[in-house]
Design goal:
The structure is a single chain. The chain is mainly alpha-helical. It has two domains: 1-89, Rna Polymerase Sigma Factor, Chain: A (Orthogonal Bundle), CATH 1.10.1740.10; 95-189, Orthogonal Bundle (Arc Repressor Mutant, subunit A). Helix content is 70%, strand content 0%. The chain has eight helices and no strands.
């Protein structure tokens, strides 16, 4: 159910009220920009994409159906626009096998506790674009595999393989991070 504030913002944006547009920007802008950054991995590119998406949002409020909450609609619209952008940017991107390292199994007891969020997000941003996109959709945005297949227009096998390789690369980076942390602690003992 929409809050009074959300209804006010929606109706104001539909009428072109700049005060409501600013409220929308202030309230949801950081989330939209964060989503853009998660998928592009580059701040300049993310900001450009964010501005394009925000203009699209402001010009398409007539398509908002009041069924979903405002944040959910904005998130879905943002992800769809980012996916379109990434698809056109690198339509048939091949991921070189040199990107993959042998990965040892990681204990599931470590749930990334102790790793600063900036470091973890940095690891995700270092993934090749296709892997970053699939990982973000599956893990961060919690999309089902069939949704990802449809959004990316990829086969089920490609999505599964790409996600598996993204996780493997992240595991390797996390293992190296923990190894460096342990070495630093030993150095100062």
């Amino acid at each position: 159910m929409l809050t009074e504030q959300e209804i006010e913002i929606i109706e104001g944006c539909r009428k072109g009220d700049t005060a409501c547009q600013k409220r929308l920007y202030d309230q949801y802008g950081p989330l939209i920009k964060g989503t853009c950054l998660r998928y592009t991995g580059d701040m300049t590119e993310a900001e450009d994409l964010f501005h394009d998406i925000f203009v699209h949002i402001l010009t398409h409020f007539d398509q908002y159906d009041h069924i979903t909450n405002l944040g959910g609609w904005l998130n879905r619209l943002t992800i769809n626009k980012v996916i379109d952008y990434m698809r056109h940017k690198s339509p048939n991107e091949a991921i070189p096998m040199s990107q993959f390292e042998q990965v040892q199994a990681v204990s599931h007891d470590r749930h990334y506790d102790g790793i600063p969020m900036e470091v973890l997000l940095g690891f995700i941003q270092q993934l090749p674009p296709k892997m970053r996109t699939v990982f973000n959709l599956a893990v961060i945005d919690e999309k089902e595999q069939n949704e990802i297949v449809e959004m990316l227009q990829e086969s089920c096998g490609n999505v599964r393989t790409t996600l598996s390789r993204a996780r493997a690369m992240l595991r390797t980076k996390i293992q190296k991070y923990w190894k460096n942390e342990e070495d630093n602690v030993k150095k100062y003992e």
